[in-house]
Design goal:
heterodimer; A: about 525 residues; alpha/beta; Glutaredoxin; Rossmann fold; Ubiquitin-like (UB roll); five-stranded mixed beta sheet; 21 helices; 16 strands; B: about 170 residues; alpha+beta; 2 domains; elongated
């Protein structure tokens, strides 16, 4: 009998829940029993309540067991899990698990399925098909494909990717750069991390295509230091790609050149703002730049620069491989394609759900998420990270669409969704939004630097019951100044969680609302 | 604003081999575009902090002012101006972890470790730090101990992680 392939994820969330210990236990047990296995450390399928999720390749496809603890391993062998045997932790065929089955995985098609560092796996699953096609096109043709796909920046700002690329393509300069913003600092988001850890070649391929499109020969991936596993994985993958000729001075004999380098951040949230990130890459304090000039014209080291989020770049290979039409057929309105939503916080089935735009928040939270982890009712949902609005349950039927969220002063952002149950104190959450801004402000503009500190002080007075009505008015005035007067989204959007908390949960601020407070 | 103090009092006299290691790092990295962050990371990975007395050397190598280098070191949360404790414990305090009890865990951590956040215990055993998101948002509260991640950390699990350290887990770099 040939070796049975067993998959134990190496995604950092799986590791945080003990995947390494499980992998060791499986290897040990197999050796002790003389069972021949091949252990593959794959990415995560993104069903974190089931991690560590162990899969076995059987004649009938991959079957799953989870969540597995090291002490479960002998029992799994006893139950014949190497042949897909029945066990209390058995979940059946992985692809049939409803949470996965109902998704539309385009960008995440390979994540959790392949060995992240296996080029053979990657190419067997459509990897490098996009780059191969791009090598036969000129820059303008590649940009047109991306523009026609309708892809918008997945980092949160949702700016059309193709238009950004066109600007860089048009810029006249012998030196241009491609920069990947992998400073995924928003709480509630982890899709960039999963993509880098679970399918790093996809990002390499996307960045290389971007380089070909705009005429850049050097790229940087700026990864936050809180993601050491992603950094290690990208560096290893770059070495593999380079050795196989997919990166370097002569990409697959085409005569085209692209080199890629990973740079580590240093714990500054504001470096997720693109101009602060460029400053940081240049070796400076992560202080925001005034725009214009746009980074597309004067970006890294003053050169024209494509700067995009991980998921934006990682989606490009598929668009090139399958064509713009394929991608834009998903989605609604001006939100084309899919978004990898991240179900986070107090949620029973937390994880990654890639779906076309247009499903509702309720479908995500109830059908996929199955309600709160605590079992208590949902009270508030923060969408789009620390700078996103808190939504009350009355908003749950909102479709996941950039414009639908913008219509009521909220943002879809990077697709991170943090769930809170009815024990949450929204005045505390509003205070935290201001406090976080005070900690992380780059300090360049006054509304953000000073406003956030004053915001904490005034909300503290409200929490202490000191003239709440008067102080709520003051907080609203302050938010107005920050919204209108800040240089970037840090100060300019910190009011979103604060105002949304005030609007939807006034009782937490000790103000008995006259029906229209705003 | 007071003038930046670069007195060695914070760091203490730097000994060999650290001095030679730092010189080698600067020499190896100085020609990299945007070299400052990679140099600072390497120094901290090697000697555990960024000694203030090496800032003039870095400044000279990169053709920067000492103030510019000091500005960068102090801007980023990651860079330490003094050595951390033998073990570094970081507790995520961002929203997704808050929603599953990280603030209670943070209070427990201060008790269990024996110092407040941003501090090191008197015996130099532990440094306790907040972190704003480890990307473990579907399995919080998240913690790292000497860089090793743990998810769904209850106070009991936190105590077990600390106990494992005390039994002689490896020290931080």
């Amino acid at each position: 009998m040939s070796a049975v392939t067993v998959f134990v994820p190496r995604d950092s969330s799986a590791l945080a829940l003990g995947a390494d210990e499980v992998a060791q236990a499986i290897a040990r047990e197999a050796a002790a029993r003389g069972a021949e296995i091949t252990l593959v450390r794959n990415g995560s399928r993104g069903m974190f309540w089931l991690e560590p999720l162990v899969e076995v390749r059987t004649a009938a496809g991959r079957v799953a067991y989870g969540p597995v603890a090291p002490e479960d391993v002998p029992g799994l062998f006893d139950a014949g899990f190497l042949g897909g045997g029945a066990h209390a932790l058995a979940l059946g065929p992985t692809g049939e698990i409803p949470f996965l089955k109902r998704q539309e995985r385009l960008t995440f098609a390979r994540v959790g399925i392949t060995d992240p560092l296996s080029l053979a796996d990657y190419t067997a699953h459509e990897g490098f098909a996009g780059l191969t096609r791009a090598l036969a096109l000129d820059g303008a043709q590649i940009v047109r494909e991306v523009t026609e796909s309708g892809l918008r920046g997945r980092g949160g700002a949702a700016f059309p990717t193709g238009i950004k690329w066109q600007t860089v393509l048009n810029a006249k300069s012998p030196v241009k750069y491609v920069v990947c913003n992998a400073d995924e600092g928003d709480s509630g988001t982890f899709s960039d991390r999963m993509a880098m850890e679970g399918d790093p070649f996809m990002l390499i391929e996307g960045m290389t295509i971007a380089g070909l499109a705009v005429g850049a020969e050097h790229g940087y991936v700026y990864v936050r230091s809180e993601y050491p596993h992603a950094i290690a994985m990208l560096e290893a993958a770059i070495d593999v790609a380079q050795a196989a000729g997919w990166l370097g001075d002569d990409i697959r004999g085409s005569g085209r050149r692209f080199r890629l380098e990973v740079r580590k951040g240093a714990g500054a949230y504001v470096c997720g703002e693109e101009t602060a990130l460029l400053e940081s890459l240049e070796g400076k304090r992560g202080v925001v730049r005034a725009k214009p000039p746009l980074p597309a014209l004067e970006g890294l080291f003053g050169k024209p620069t494509v700067i995009n989020n991980v998921i934006s770049l990682a989606t490009v290979p598929l668009i090139l491989a399958r064509g713009a039409q394929f991608y834009r057929d998903y989605g609604m309105g001006r939100s084309r394609g899919t978004l990898p939503f991240q179900l986070a916080g107090n949620i029973r089935q937390g994880g990654l759900v890639e779906k076309a735009f247009g499903l509702t928040l309720r479908e995500l939270l109830e059908d996929f998420g199955q309600g709160t982890r605590s079992g208590r009712p949902i009270r508030a949902v923060q969408v789009g990270g620390p700078l996103g609005a808190y939504l009350p349950v009355s908003r749950l039927d909102t479709p996941m669409d950039y414009e639908a969220f913008a219509a009521f002063g909220a943002v879809l952002g990077h697709g991170g969704i943090v769930v809170f149950d009815d024990t949450v104190d929204m005045a505390r959450q509003a205070r935290y939004a201001m406090a976080f801004c005070a900690i992380e402000s780059c300090g360049k503009c006054t509304p953000c630097r000073i406003g956030s500190t004053r915001g904490v002080e005034v909300i503290d007075k409200i929490i202490a019951g000191d003239q709440p009505v008067r102080h709520v008015k003051l907080v609203r005035d302050l938010c107005d100044t920050m919204l209108g007067g800040s240089l970037c989204a840090m100060g300019g959007m910190t009011p979103y969680p604060v105002l949304s908390a005030l609007d939807a949960f006034p009782e937490d601020f000790g103000v008995a609302v006259p029906a229209k407070a705003a | 604003m007071s003038s930046p103090s670069l007195s060695p009092s914070a760091a203490g006299a730097l000994r060999e081999p650290a001095r030679a290691q730092i010189a080698a790092i600067i020499a190896a990295r100085r020609d990299l575009p945007g070299a400052l962050l990679p140099i600072l990371h390497d120094i901290q990975d090697t000697v555990g902090y960024v000694p203030s007395e090496v800032l003039p050397d870095i400044a000279r190598a990169l053709n920067l002012s000492r103030a510019e280098v000091h500005g960068v070191v102090t801007f980023y949360h990651d860079f330490r101006e003094r050595k951390a404790g033998r073990h570094v414990v970081r507790v995520c305090r961002a929203e997704a972890c808050q929603s599953v009890g990280s603030e209670a865990l943070a209070a427990h951590a201060e008790q269990a470790v024996g110092c407040a956040f941003h501090e090191t215990t008197a015996d130099g055993e532990f440094t306790l730090e907040p972190v704003y998101c480890l990307g473990q948002c579907a399995c919080g509260p998240a913690v790292t101990v000497d860089g090793k991640l743990a998810g769904r950390v209850t106070p009991q699990r936190f105590d077990a992680l600390l106990a494992a350290c005390a039994r002689g887990g490896e020290a931080t770099a």
